[in-house]
Amino acid sequence: MKNIYLLFILTLLCACRHQPGNKSGDLIELFVDDQYEVKNLSELVESIRVIPLETTDQSLIGSIADLGYDDGNIFVLDGYNQLVSQFDENGQFIRKLVQKGNGPDDIQHPQMFSIDKLHNEVWLSNNTNFMRFDYHGNYLGKRDYQIGFTDWYVDEDYDIYFYTGKNDNAHNEDGFMTGDLTLLTTNDQKKTWFKSDIIGYYKPNMTKVSFGSSHPFSPQPDGSVTFSYTFNDTIYCIKNKQIYPKYCVHLTGNSLPSEKLDNMPGEEIDKYIQEHPSLQWNMNSVFETPAYLLFGYGIGFHAWAWVLYEKATKKMTNVQIKDDLFGSTFLPIKDSSGDSFWAAMMVENMELNPKLTEFIGKEKYERLKMLSPEDNPVILEFTFKEKF
């Protein structure tokens, strides 16, 4: 294992940007150099559970655009029709939460979904409102919004944090242009954080290159939320309507300062990355569990590396994961629960290695081999080893 520098500090004096200024606890600095290792997935994981999703006419899924797990329920977003299907923890189909159509109980413009694990609800975005369901499929009503966003999180008071990703929300005609994080309360009050100079740069009908943030919200058992946004080197904590920096990540190799990236139009970023193929950039896909902090970063446009910080040992691993078990080119982690991580994989993309039997046994391995490309995707639940 390649250990990387790790330093604890007791103040907020570091190179990262801390726009909110709210302090709580100690800020942890993580220094990531460019000497990552290539590790096999089989070397990194402690356990793997493979869950084939039941394939029926009612449950058929073209591809999985997103997934979430909570309390024995697996929710998946079909990348083709944007509808959400619910399965139990063994992969048995339960229901589609709603059908697409123009009826009073249908969804007209499905886009994304989010699990509200605090209230055991699923929220589906529907152009200008959310449709809410409980885990039993009961419809709970709608919540209107007028804001452009790419993800959201519902807190204990049903206030909504939108990840707006530098969208210009001037269409609200209230003079309110959002930053990367916008709070919308139940009485429609707004507050925004992390507004960059790029806000307002793009004009209507102007073609633009956009770089999103994967998994910006990572809920924690204590009710707080770990939050990150594109081109930022700080990972934040949201709790009790307050935001404070929690981790400061330094990509210390051949990297471009996050503040410069944050204020560059997408076309300029695209050109710069093309000209610097070994650049470390765009910390993304941030997951925090009681035991780990896991995040990825790009290496130019051609590679992706993961950083795993073990909280108990205060050790870090900088690694490219080679999937020697399922043969995927990229491990698509979509959610975390407890200390488990969840991913999805299409059957046609799997090249099973007999080494997988060490984790799931020969009988389950043989059943996996019998799946066909026409079958539904499989869900992976896995845990990392305490020490690599």
TrEMBL record:
The keyword Metal-binding does not apply. This is 6-bladed beta-propeller. InterPro entries: 6-blade_b-propeller_TolB-like (IPR011042). The chain crosses the membrane at residues 291-309. Keywords: Membrane, Transmembrane, Transmembrane helix. The keyword Repeat does not apply. Pfam families: DUF5128 (PF17170).
